[in-house]
Task: inverse folding
């Protein structure tokens, strides 16, 4: 049973077709589109795609974007399912005050991270960093409890905010330097250090809280930009959200199979 996994962020839609809804399944095809180009998926990227049997997605973009994605999915029989963060799922316990108000991408990425730790039998505390339009930094304890997390502006938003709020900060992109000596480098370095510093702080807080050094996973479209400037050790995992979607899809598919079995034996 093939699975089309969707990750709809505030900037881009990421998709991947898997052979089966299980962790470690073979990825048959994948792609990414900026949100302004999502109305052409069925006549473009998806034109020759083998019809998926199941479609599971995470969406944090607007309802209008979600409807436009659903319109593209109408060519296939499988009705799209969207993850809604709950109190607990696939090895993660949700500590948010209102579990459903947590971003679905954050929830799914934490589930992906937890599944990776479970697969390695490394039940350690974990920090999950996503560098996309926004940056999110989550803390999970060794039992898979999501203790809480931070939201920061991403690189682009930080720079645009500074540009629009000042008269003298309209400059080209610079490079990251320990001691920047021009405006471009000062801005680029400032944004990068803000993110790297926030991650380090969360790692320190979690280490102190749990009495154990956390594993740190980093993902997202702009993660590669952060990688050379991080002050803590981390693993870059491009597929963290897809890993989480596979775990949730696996759970749902086996629940349904069990229900069918129960009703057929009644
Ligand atoms: N090809 C690229 N070149 C430079 N930056 C990129 C590129 N692709 C993505 N990014 C950065 O990654 C961000 C989008 O990452 P993504 O994880 O897709 O975000 P979201 O999930 O919020 O849509 C952009 O805001 C941009 O900063
Ligand atoms: C924090 C986010 C904007 C991140 O979005 P992204 O950068 O992935 O596009 C998204 O997860 C979201 O809208 N969250 C809802 C609020 C919350 O998580 O508390
Ligand atoms: K994201």
Result:
């Amino acid at each position: 049973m093939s699975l089309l996994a969707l990750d709809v962020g505030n900037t881009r839609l990421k998709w991947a077709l898997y052979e089966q809804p299980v962790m470690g399944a073979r990825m048959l095809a994948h792609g990414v589109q900026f949100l302004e180009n999502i109305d052409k998926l069925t006549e473009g990227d998806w034109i020759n795609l083998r019809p998926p049997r199941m479609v599971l997605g995470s969406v944090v973009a607007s309802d209008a974007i979600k409807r436009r994605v659903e319109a593209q999915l109408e060519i296939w029989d499988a009705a799209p399912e969207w993850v809604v963060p709950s109190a607990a799922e696939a090895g993660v316990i949700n500590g948010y005050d209102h579990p459903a108000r947590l971003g679905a991408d954050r929830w799914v990425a934490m589930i992906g991270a937890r599944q990776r730790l479970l697969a390695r039998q490394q039940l350690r505390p974990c920090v999950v960093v996503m560098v996309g339009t926004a940056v999110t930094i989550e803390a999970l304890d060794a039992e898979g409890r999501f203790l809480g997390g931070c939201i920061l502006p991403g690189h682009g938003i930080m720079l645009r905010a500074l540009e629009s709020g000042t008269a003298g900060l309209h400059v080209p992109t610079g490079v990251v330097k320990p001691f920047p000596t021009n405006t471009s480098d000062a801005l680029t370095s400032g944004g990068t250090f803000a993110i790297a510093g926030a991650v380090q702080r969360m790692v320190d807080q979690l280490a102190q809280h749990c009495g154990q050094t956390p594993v740190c996973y980093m993902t997202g479209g702009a993660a590669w930009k952060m990688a050379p400037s991080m002050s803590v050790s981390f693993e870059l995992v491009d597929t963290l959200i897809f890993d989480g979607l596979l775990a949730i899809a696996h759970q749902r598919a086996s629940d349904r199979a069990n229900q069918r079995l129960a009703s057929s034996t009644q």
Q: What stands out?
A: The CA atoms of residues 58 and 105 lie 6 Å apart. The chain has two domains: 3-82, 88-243. The chain is about 35% helix and 25% strand.
